[in-house]
Amino acid sequence: MAENPLRDVRVRQAISKAINRQALTDRTMEGLAVPAANIVSPGIFGYNDALKVEAYDPEGAKKLLAQAGYPNGFALTLHGPNDRYINDDQVVQTVAQFLNRIGIQTKVVTLPLSVYFARARTGEFSVALLGWGTLAGDFGLRTLVGTPNPATGWGSWNWGKYSNPAVDKLIASSLASVDQARRETYAKDAAALALKEYAVIPLHHQYATWALRKGLKYTARTDEFTFAHQFHPE
């Protein structure tokens, strides 16, 4: 194509509106996830509860594509891993079905993790699935939407090479702050700005699950770690 349609924020917004996250979590994820509006999950430092899950609006998505100059859509390949996240192959297939419904002819390619990450990080893929866990929102933002800079490590997983100096400034202010309340405000503002521009398109937060024998109790952790000392008799 003469131009990359994904550089247009209206196209990225159309993709987001095309995805029925409730159906994705209920059916594809079999209830083991919740729709996402943030990069980090609820309960993680920097989670911005003012951000709302994108409403499923395929007709609105089609209008945005038309406004962006793609009334008949376009074709792309959606990549994802097939052995890393819960139902990851099915998630990619489901998203592709939603995109096809708004006129984006979507082909799916899934790969083993050992191959997938290496190729994704070199920029081979147009649209790709990534999951991320972190203990703080600003840590995740620095890695996922910060302007790539090999010297500092910023944007090391920013596959789309998104860059916004205002977002970078907010992330840097958050990371440098010694006041926790102020730090969190900066992190929330950075997330709001990056997601307003659809730097990434959040899909869902998957649940971490544990199976225990009768008589044991373990309190689920959002970071998915399992520590032996935290198991207790029921």
How much of the sequence lies in strands comes to 5-15%
Strands, total number: 7
Number of helices: 8
Mean pLDDT, to the nearest integer, reads 95
Main sheet, how many strands, which sense, barrel?
Answer: 3 strands, parallel
Rg to the nearest angstrom?
A: 19 Å
Helix content: 25-40%
Write the element-wise H/E pattern from the N-terminal end onward.
HHEHEHEHEHHHEEE
Alpha-beta classification: alpha/beta
- Strand line-up of the largest beta sheet: 3-2-4
N-C termini distance: 60 Å
Report on this structure:
By secondary structure, the chain is α/β, with parallel strands linked by helices. 37% of the residues lie in helices and 11% in strands. It is built from 8 helices and 7 strands. A 3-stranded parallel β-sheet has the order 3-2-4. The chain has a two-stranded antiparallel sheet with strand order 1-5. Strands 6-7 form a two-stranded antiparallel sheet. α1 packs antiparallel against α3, α6 runs antiparallel to α7 and α7 runs antiparallel to α8. The longest helix has 17 residues. The radius of gyration is 19 Å and the shape is globular. The chain starts with 8 loop residues before the first helix and ends with a strand. The model has no long low-confidence stretch (mean pLDDT 95).
